[in-house]
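Q: Hi! First time asking for a complex rather than a single chain. Here are the components, and I think there are two in total. Is that enough to go on?
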Amino acid sequence: MSVLVYTESDQGNFKKAALEAASYGKAVAEAIDTNLVALTFNASEASELGTYGVEKVLNTNSVNGFNAKIYADAIKQAAEKEGATVVILSASADSRYIAPLLAVGLKAGYASNVVEAPLSLSPFVVKRTAFTNKAFCNTEISTAVKIVGVSNNSFGLVENSTTAQLEDFSPNLITSATTVTSIDKASDKVTIADAEVVVSAGRGLKGPENWGMIEELADVLGAATACSKPVSDLGWRPHSEHVGQTGKPVATNLYIAIGISGAIQHLAGINSSKIKVVINTDPEAPFFKAADYGIVGDAFEVVPKLIEKLKVFKAQNS
Amino acid sequence: MKLLVCISHVPDTTSKINFTEGDTKFDTNGVQYVINPNDEFGLTRAMWFKEKQNATVDVISVGGAETEPTLRKALAIGADAAIRVNAEAIDGHTVATYLAAAAKEGNYDLIIAGRESIDYNGGMVPGMLAAMLDANFVTNCISLEIDGTNATAVREIDGGKETISTVLPLVIGGQKGLVEESDLRIPNMRGIMMARKKPLTVVEPTNEASETHSVSFEKPAPRGAVKLVEADNIDELINLLHNEAKVI
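A: Yes, that's all I need. Here is the structure of the assembled complex.
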């Protein structure tokens, strides 16, 4: 018996979401009194996982490039080899792609968007977000093997230092008729999925030419940029920045909304963020009811001042 | 090309979410239902394949008779025929199992579902369906072209996108980008009249196959009132974010 966590890496480095999944896996392994095993593909520093309580790492170097079907089958083989009763994945785009394929392969029940350690082990009940963050759903997984998808920035990183035993793992690689022909990824930008801070702006900015200050504010904070639905529908910003019910969910530590009124669909999408700041000229904007901190004011006056003051603050506190 | 679009019948995006029976059931009282937005982008892309590439488009949903107006709307938008699997959608695995049985029956080349529904947000039905059918699979799909039996799809990844080459049969988890918001179609009177005459077949489910179920629901704790900071007192905002919220 064991708990298996799939720890995703990007160019050899573990993603924060993977370390969070490992932290979650450790909590489950301790609760059911078993070991935590991690599976990695092409990780350069697999031993780093020991910091988060991983006792054994299966490292695979024989896989080239991401393919959900091949990865899911390799994870299945690792789960069977280790007798895993619980398999943990993160909420990254790739892990969400893999998880349902793995669930069918392992005949395992799968709960996604899980935000806390299991509420009970027998029956196995987890708390997950539903209705696009407007509610939580306590979900029982009733199969022998269970798959948990851990939401980003929910359980947090928990150090549990141990020495991870490394083992080379060579799964049988199945074939797939799906191949990636090109990848278009900005390597220098913080992604919404990984960001601790997100700076988001709406129609209150009046036009795409005014996004310079949003990008500068994001830059000062090491933040990702995002936008409201109307802004992406108007083509001012790419769809990939649209956050909300039909866009991306945001579960960040700090979400700064500038010139966004706060439609119910937008608020649902960002509800899992811990601290929300709103800057809007209209004191009646619904966002003020959902925010922790607010400034009633003109973004074109407030944001440049905020950038200037934050630069001073960062200089003093770094 | 035979195309199947999976339709989830979900509360409108503006719905207030409440629960009944000791927080164990979703309260449908006063809730308007719509085609799941991620599915509607797929349905609209399917109309393009119908018009430009001569595809036939069936739509399918798992649910009781209350889901039929949602299927009729899909027919009014232009789908050729509808299938309703007469069963409760207990979990993603159940839905995928029922859909897989119907899909095998219909021998579809391309199946488009939304990447996730906006009610339970499981994000698992298209992937499970693909695995059960042993079909190729692309999720978070923001662009799809079909040429004969070859398909080119673009998938949104964390921080970018990737282009994927694959072949039919194929299952797609779609989202905005497959078509734009402005491409979505509002059924016209002619479409609505024609939809009444199109076939809507009710099929009974295969054996129930749930692996998970919802035990109870909770609403997020109400938050305290917003703390307002004067627009000329940015230092105070920075102080609050640093010392009180500890997020910068």
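A: The radius of gyration of chain A is 21 Å. Let me know if you'd like any chain examined more closely.
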